[in-house]
TrEMBL record:
<dbReference type="InterPro" id="IPR029058">
    <property type="entry name" value="AB_hydrolase_fold"/>
</dbReference>
<comment type="similarity">
    <text>Belongs to the AB hydrolase superfamily. Epoxide hydrolase family.</text>
</comment>
<dbReference type="InterPro" id="IPR000639">
    <property type="entry name" value="Epox_hydrolase-like"/>
</dbReference>
<protein>
    <submittedName>
        <fullName>Alpha/beta-hydrolase</fullName>
    </submittedName>
</protein>
<feature type="domain" description="AB hydrolase-1">
    <location>
        <begin position="39"/>
        <end position="320"/>
    </location>
</feature>
<dbReference type="Pfam" id="PF00561">
    <property type="entry name" value="Abhydrolase_1"/>
</dbReference>
<dbReference type="GO" id="GO:0016787">
    <property type="term" value="F:hydrolase activity"/>
</dbReference>
<dbReference type="InterPro" id="IPR000073">
    <property type="entry name" value="AB_hydrolase_1"/>
</dbReference>
<keyword id="KW-0378">Hydrolase</keyword>
Length: 340
């Protein structure tokens, strides 16, 4: 489906809502048509868009599910504040609940997320789990609140000692001043880097070694791009970020600069979060930064009813294997949610 076709089909369903802290969000809202009246909430990550959910939105729209898909803070038609302190997980979780409550749903929705959307979904679970019927995490699992102040150097040292790689080394660049301009000036290289044909190799050599992402971009390096990124998809990614990268990069900056520390500490002093609702996890076996080995332990501690579906996919499973992912999510919804 091209961008034009997507807009023709869904353009009339866009809405806006100003949240309780005064930020305007744009979101897609398609009312449920099936008798079960179940709505699915889709939370994208970095640097994604509502359009990237097209395979999932089309599949579940055809089955009569309601759909709510926001442009996350910093993206698309949503406000793009440049202050990283506005991008805390607690505050954005409240934003999402404000959007849901503005729709006055008759039934609790199912929340589904990927990448940084998954980190935000974890905080939604911590704070507002009773407002949702079920939760689905793609790749990135549940991240419990951390009582210790965030220290990227300490995190990378720990990852190096336990996995042999500084898995989140690229966060150092993403949270740095001027990273937005470097990416914008080298966008083709950045898209190659985000979606390489050889994800384990390229991400291991570049994203997981401090300083290498800057070298890759400023030297205009290119690598073969994954086949699931068509020319149309590439153009859509460029258009989605036409407003610039400074705001989206604040999802990294908020964490690296410690803006989540106080909220994490407060939540960490409470009993660990557990949920009785069904939880789905898309375990992506070829994802170097969000491996099942990292994602599963916290999900098993969180969920009494956990369904794990394994995929021979990298980080972007919803684009790489959309039919397989949709089928597994469909089965889970029908067996665990619609029967509840």
């Amino acid at each position: 489906m091209t961008v034009a076709q997507f807009e023709d089909k869904y353009g009339a369903f866009y809405k806006t809502h100003t949240t309780s802290r005064g930020l305007k969000y744009r979101f897609l809202h398609v009312p449920a048509a099936a008798p079960h009246d179940t709505t699915l909430l889709w939370l994208h990550g970095f640097p994604s868009s509502i359009y990237e959910w097209r395979h999932q939105l089309d599949h579940f729209h055809a089955k009569g599910y309601g759909l709510v898909a926001p442009d996350m803070l910093g993206y698309g038609g949503t406000d793009k504040p440049t202050d990283a302190a506005l991008y805390t997980h607690n505050a954005m979780a409240r934003d999402v609940l404000d959007i849901i409550e503005s729709l006055h749903p008759a039934k609790k929705p199912v929340a589904i997320a990927h990448d940084w959307g998954g980190a935000l979904l974890g905080r939604i679970v911590d704070l507002y789990k009773d407002h949702f019927a079920a939760f689905a995490f793609f790749g990135v699992g549940y991240m419990p609140p951390n009582p210790a102040p965030f220290d990227l150097d300490a995190v990378l040292a720990y990852l190096k000692s336990t996995t042999g790689k500084e898995i989140f080394a690229y966060w150092d660049f993403m949270a740095s001043d001027g990273a937005d301009k470097v990416i914008e000036q080298n966008f083709e290289s950045m898209l190659d880097l985000l979606h390489p044909a050889d994800m384990p190799g390229v991400w291991g050599d570049v994203l997981m070694q401090r300083g290498q992402i800057e070298v890759f971009l400023t030297q205009h390096k290119r690598v073969p791009r994954a086949t699931y990124i068509t020319d149309e998809g590439f153009d859509a990614m460029r258009a989605n970020l036409a407003g610039g990268l400074r705001a989206p990069l604040n999802w990294y900056a908020a964490t690296v600069r410690g803006h989540n520390n106080a909220d994490d500490l407060s939540l960490a002093t409470q009993p660990p979060t557990t949920v009785a609702q069904p939880v789905f996890y898309a375990a992506c076996q070829r994802d170097p930064v969000s491996s099942p080995a990292v994602g599963l332990p916290s999900l098993r501690a969180l969920a009494a009813d956990l369904t794990v579906a394994e995929f021979a996919a990298g980080h972007w499973v919803y684009l790489e294997l959309p039919d397989a992912l949709n089928a597994e999510l469909d089965r889970w919804l029908e067996s665990k949610v619609l029967t509840a």
